[in-house]
Design a protein that fits this description.
The complex is a heterodimer of chains A (about 425) and B (about 170). Chain A contains 13 helices and 18 strands. By secondary structure, chain A is an alpha/beta fold. The two termini of chain B are about 20 Å apart. The chains are: A alpha/beta (about 425), B alpha/beta (about 170).
Chain lengths: ~425, ~170
């Protein structure tokens, strides 16, 4: 019996010929990504040795620019850490700033066939790069940073074969909402994406889907390596890599075909995305006070382009705050050059610097009691973006932008 | 052997319910006070040290935040659930909280009943009904971490982290 992508990456990283579901593997970690949260006074532990500074990336993303004194103190501490251990890949507040998974994508730090860990649950975002990328907890991350190794329980793999092509106005987020609504959670399972539909799915779209793997509770969400991916990585990172595609006789616990042509704009109702998706029409008219596009899931240049397309020449409805957060400052600059930022701002959007900010209810867009938000970000848990009585609907950037214009939830096709 | 009074929860209990976002950078004590404040206000004052949580499917879905530590600090001796999110499980291992996947556990327990957990053969017994369930075994390496106070003490012993007495 052959191996899936994840099993093949683990076989290489654990120096074994064969890895199968049910195994516990101890693997070499190729990249460990530390965040500002790793250095916050209430969380941090003093690191005495690191395994290899070249395998560490430090990105400040949750509390940037520092919104309070405690965060600022943690930033200072982290800068000292970076200096002490000679870490070259450091993304402080500034032109290299961004949400860690988006920075990792911009720079292609996550190489095909490699293992990457980070102390944030949406690390699976880098699964778009054929990388075994997983969010881990604080202790796990320090374990990887100091020993160069970590462990994984190898789960069963569900294979999704993508066919066809998304129609205009339908996006990768809608594909995710379809998966979550139809199949529910994938606890203890790996998700593998491939098939001919990949040819019509750009890297940014794959990133959205891979990122949202965390919301399916998947262990890993990994894409096949095709020419589009190999070209993307080689243009950004000169390091050698060994991409892994599944064996023809790989064992899957289930194999499902997703016809992209049949996808439609969906909305997840508040509090959960698990079997909670409905067509936009079912909640049309639901009044909103905030519309948000951003996060590691929807802060790509494609997401900003789609938002700009929808709002061009229109105005955000009175009483609605429309917040847009690019995934990285690099994306922000590209959106400036492309004219998306101007279009968004002319419509009345507030475009913020790159940060996790509003997505986790941290800062720059926290919801008040009783408010309703429609978001193109990662999570709609109760209380996620602020007050627990706030309701959070989740949708694509196009649906969110259209809703900002209408003042209520609406299908973007209706205002086109 | 671990035994304790059971608190029951539904499917898909997420990390933000256990450790709300605005408490992310708060002290451990502040985080403990906020456990389940949105879905079960007052629970932290009702739970006793040694109590056991029985959950449904996909327990602990969501964030990498140390939600397992908050439950441990709230006095919870073990989490028994139909299935457990992989990231929550990692944090349970690393913060020394017993967490077991036990198919059938949600239906087998009513709130207030007593669960008796054996980590030798990974069985869970309901003291009132005498129903015995089989948990999915936890690999030895992970069980040792889970029962040994988690990963930090291990990294301290190896001289990789500065010891911090009293820290998790």
């Amino acid at each position: 019996m052959g191996m899936t992508i994840i099993e093949k990456i683990f076989a290489r990283a654990s120096h074994q010929a064969k890895v199968a579901a049910g195994d516990l593997v101890v693997v070499d970690v190729d990249v460990s990504v530390m965040l500002d949260s790793s250095f916050h006074a209430n969380h941090r532990r003093r690191i005495l040795k690191v395994h290899d500074p070249e395998k560490i990336v430090v990105v400040y993303d949750h509390m940037v620019p520092a919104p309070d004194k405690m965060s600022a103190e943690g930033h200072v501490y982290g800068r000292e850490f970076v200096k002490q251990f000679g870490i070259r890949r450091f993304h402080d507040v500034g032109p290299d700033q961004g949400i860690s998974h988006a920075v990792v994508a911009d720079r292609a730090y996550a190489l095909p066939g490699s293992v990457l860990v980070c102390g944030d649950s949406h690390t699976c975002a880098s699964g778009a790069f054929n990388c075994a990328a997983r969010g881990v907890g604080g202790p796990d991350l320090l374990g990887a940073v100091t020993t160069g190794k970590t462990w994984f329980k190898v789960g069963d793999t569900v294979r999704y074969d993508l066919v066809g092509q998304l129609r205009p106005g339908v996006s990768a987020k809608d594909v995710f909402l379809h998966l979550a609504g139809t199949y529910g959670h994938h606890t203890n399972q790996n998700i593998e994406f491939g098939g001919p539909g990949l040819a019509h799915l750009g890297i940014n779209a794959r990133r959205t889907i891979a990122t949202m793997g965390a919301e399916l509770s998947a262990e890993f969400a990994t894409f096949e390596a095709d020419q589009t991916l190999l070209d993307y990585v080689r243009a950004r990172n000169p390091a050698p890599f060994d991409a892994q595609n599944p064996d023809p006789d790989a064992r899957y616990v289930d194999r499902r075909t997703i016809d992209l042509d049949t996808m439609e704009p969906l909305v997840a109702l508040p509090d959960s995305v698990i079997r909670n998706s409905v067509p936009v029409g079912e909640v049309e008219g639901e009044k909103i006070q905030q519309a948000f596009i951003g996060s590691c899931a929807n802060g790509t240049l494609d997401d900003l382009a789609e938002a700009a397309r929808v709002v061009k020449g229109r105005k955000v409805a009175p009483g609605v705050r429309f917040l847009v957060t690019p995934g990285t400052q690099q994306v922000f600059q590209a959106a400036l050059v492309a004219g998306y930022v101007q279009t968004l701002m002319e419509a009345g959007a507030v475009v913020t610097p790159a940060t996790c900010g509003a997505c986790f209810g941290g800062h720059m867009g926290v919801l008040g009691a009783g408010e309703t938000c429609i978001t193109a970000s990662t999570r709609n848990f109760k209380g996620r973006m602020g007050d627990p009585s706030a309701r959070i609907f989740m949708a694509s950037p196009a649906t969110v932008a259209a809703s900002a214009i209408a003042g209520h939830i609406v299908n973007s096709a209706k205002i086109a | 052997m671990v035994s304790g009074a059971v608190w029951t929860f539904d499917d898909n209990i997420n990390t933000d319910l256990i450790l709300p976002g605005d408490m992310l950078f708060a002290t451990e004590e502040e985080q403990r006070r906020a456990v389940f404040r949105a879905n079960r206000p007052g629970w932290v004052d009702q739970v006793h040290k040694g109590d056991i949580i029985v959950g449904g499917l996909n327990f602990g879905m969501g964030s990498s935040r140390p939600a397992a530590r908050s439950l441990r600090n709230a006095g919870v001796a073990a989490v028994l659930a139909e299935s457990i999110n992989g990231l929550f499980f990692r944090n349970a291992v690393n913060f020394g909280l017993i967490a077991l996947e036990v198919p059938g556990v949600r239906a087998a327990f009513a709130e207030g009943q007593t669960a008796i957990v054996s980590l030798d053969d990974f069985t869970v017994r309901n003291r009132e009904s005498n129903i015995v369930l089989q948990a999915n075994p936890v690999p030895r390496m992970l069980l040792d971490l889970m029962l040994g106070g988690g990963l930090y003490p291990h990294l301290e012993q190896k001289g990789l982290l500065e010891p911090r007495p009293g820290a998790p």
